[in-house]
C-alpha cells in the first residue's frame, strides 16, 4: 500500500478527531495487517506502523516523538526525536515515525532479537508519545499518547509429505500433502501450491521459480489437495517439482495488497522443493536416502566418479533382476588379496565363476528365462594381460557340478564413440527441438501458453584429439514470463585434465549450508589436482521481480553471490572440505521501491566445514558438517548482524543386502543460508532409516523414522513437534510378478500456550501397487494397478 493512498484514508478516519474541542494537535498510529517482526525493517520499510498527525493550531508546530514497545516478555523504547508539522494532516510512514536506530530492547525481546533477528511470538502494544508540543512562536500544547496493538507470529514453513522427494509414483491423480503452519493465534494461513514440470538441465529450484506451472492454486483450511482433473495430465517418464508456501489469505489483505503474495513465517513461508517422477508402472522402492530424507532444502547426495574414472556400478536396488542381486551378494562375501592387481583378477574370476554356476543352478526354473533375457549389469571384465592368464580361481569357486570351468579370456573394453569431425575438433552429444500447442475450454485462466517451442542441447566439443573438452549445455524456451525467474540458460564448461572453467549458467553444489540449489549466471573455476579440490563461483542467482498489477506476485530484489571451497581427499572415502558463501541483494534493483514493500534486501555470509570418514571393512561411513552464519534482514539498516550456527551428523552402515543409518541435525534460530532456498532454521531433527532383503531377495523391507522439534531458540509462542513413521515393502515372488506396499503415519502436535490451545494433525497413508509383466509376440506387456488411501 503506497503512502499516497494511506493519506486520504487516514484523514477520513481522523476527521472527527481533528474537530474535537481542545484537540488542536492530535495524532493516531495504526499498524499494518502484516506487521514485520524484524526491527531492522522499520528503518527503511513501511511494513510495520504508520501515523497521521493533525495540526489545527493555525500555525506550524514542533514536538519530540518517542516510540514505546510494550509486552509481557519485555519492553523497548527509542530516544525522542525532533519533528515539525505544518498546518493540517501529515502522514508519517514507518521509517520517519521514530528514531528506530536508537531502539533499545529489554528482557526476552532483546534475547530473541539477538538470537533470531525478530521479536518473539506474542501480542504487543506500540505507543507513540508526543511531548514538548509547541508552536514555533513558543505556545505550548498538551502531550498526548496514541496506541496500536499487533500480534507477532513467525511460524515454521510447511514440510512436504507426499509425494516424497525423488519418488516414483503411478497414481494418476496423486494427493499432495504437507504439514500445517500454525500461527501464534492458533489459526492457519492459506497455502499456495505450485506444481511444474522440470526440463532437461534444470535444478528443482530453477524449475519451480521459472517454469509455467501445470497448476498454481491457493488452498484455505486444508493441508492436502488432489491433482486437479482440469489441468494437463501427468506424462509417463516426466519429472515434476512442487512446493508449498504459507501466505496471507486474500481476505486478510487490503485492497491495494491484492496483487501481492504476502508470505507468512520463516523462510518467507516456503517449503523445500520436492520432485517426483510419474510412471505408468510402479517400481520397487529403493533405499531411503540418509535419515529422514536429504538435508532440508538440498538435493540428496550422490556419489559422483572422479574425472577420468568409470561411473560407479548401479546401487543394489537398481539391479535388473534377482539373479544379478544374488550374484552381487555372493561376490561381496569374498575379500581380495592385498595385491591390487591380484585382488582385481581374483575378484573378476570369482565373479565369472559365480555367474556361470548360478545359471546352471537356475536351469529348468522360472528364473532361467528372465536371467537370460536380462543383460548382465557387470558387463565384460578387462584384466591386465600379465595377470589374467596366470590367475588361479579362488578356493571355493568350483562349479556346483564339480566340473572345472575353462579358462576365461580377457575382454578388451569397448572403445568410446569417436565423435564427429577431425581429430583437432570433434563434436559429441546431441540436441533436440520440440514444440507444443495447448488449448482449453471453460472458465479460469490458462495454465500454459497456447504455443511454445523449446531447444535443448547437451553438446561437447573436443579439441586436440579430445584432450580439451568444452561441454555446451543450453535450454531455450518460449515459456519465459517477466514475473518469474529466467527459464533460458546457456552454460559452457571447458576442461583440460584437472582444470576446468565455468561460464554462463551453472549450478555448483558445495554443501547444504552454503551453495546447495542455486543456479548462478556468471563464472567460476573447478580445479582437482591429485587429491585437492578447489572451486570458485560468482554471479547472480536471482533477478529482480517488480510488482505486477495484473498478476499476484511476490516482489524480489536481485541477488548476487560469491563462493569458494577447498577440499582434500577422496569424495567417496575420507575427505575434508571448507566452503564459504557471501550473498547480497541489490538494494537498487527495484527501480521505484514502495516504502510498504514486505520484502527487504538481505545479506548473508556462511562458513562451513565438512568431513567424511569411511571404514570399508566394517561398511561404515560417517559425515559431519558444521556452519556459522551472519545474516542481515535489511542491509540498508543500521542494525547488527544476527549470528547463527548449524551442526549435522550422519552415520551409515551399508552392505549388499541391508543398510541402516542415523542422523542428527541442529539449526539455531539465527542460522540462515541464502544459498539454500528450502532450509528452515530453529529446529532439531533426529532420524533413523533401514533397509533389508529377505527370502533370497523376494521380500524387500524399508523404513524411515523421523522426529522434529521446532522452537530451539525459545522465541515461538508454542513448540511444534512432528513425528514421521513410514514403511515400504516389495514382494517379488517371480521376476515378472510383484506387489509394492506403502504405509505412513505423520503427526504434528502444538503445545498449548497463553493464547494457543493445544492442537494436533495426523496424516495416515496406505497404498498397494500390484504389477505383472509378460512377453507377447516379442513385445513386453505390463499391467499395473495402484490404490492409495
Structure overview:
10% of the residues lie in helices and 41% in strands. The chain has 789 residues and is mainly beta. Strand 37 (737-750) and strand 38 (759-776) form a beta hairpin. It is globular and about 100 Å long. It starts with a helix and ends with a strand.
CATH fold title of the largest domain: Porin
User: Approximately what portion of the residues adopt beta-strand conformation?
Assistant: 35-45%
Oligomerization status of the protein chains:
single chain
What is the averaged pLDDT score? Answer: 77
Identify the overall geometry.
globular
Amino- and carboxy-terminal Cα gap: 44 Å
CATH C-level category of the largest domain: Mainly Beta
Class inferred from helices and paired strands? mainly beta
Defining key terms:
single chain; 789 residues; mainly beta; 3 domains; seven-stranded antiparallel β-sheet; Autotransporter outer membrane beta-barrel domain-containing protein
Q: What's the topology here?
A:
Layout: H1 3-13, H2 15-18, E1 25-31, E2 49-55, E3 61-71, E4 74-77, E5 81-85, E6 88-92, H3 94-97, E7 104-105, H4 108-116, E8 122-135, E9 140-141, E10 144-152, E11 160-162, E12 167-169, E13 175-178, E14 190-197, H5 204-210, E15 215-219, E16 224-226, E17 239-247, E18 274-278, H6 322-331, H7 340-362, H8 367-373, H9 385-388, E19 425-428, E20 431-437, E21 451-463, E22 468-477, E23 489-492, E24 495-496, E25 499-506, E26 520-527, E27 532-542, E28 559-569, E29 575-585, E30 603-615, E31 620-632, E32 642-654, E33 658-667, E34 683-694, E35 699-710, E36 720-734, E37 737-750, E38 759-776, E39 779-784, E40 787-788
Parallel strand pairs: 12-18
Antiparallel strand pairs: 1-2, 2-6, 3-4, 3-5, 3-8, 4-7, 8-9, 8-10, 11-13, 13-16, 14-15, 14-17, 17-18, 19-21, 20-21, 21-22, 22-23, 22-24, 23-25, 24-25, 25-26, 26-27, 27-28, 28-29, 29-30, 30-31, 31-32, 32-33, 33-34, 34-35, 35-36, 36-37, 37-38, 38-39, 38-40
Helix pairs in contact: 6-7
Biased composition (Low complexity): 381-403
Keywords: Signal
Biased composition (Basic and acidic residues): 299-316
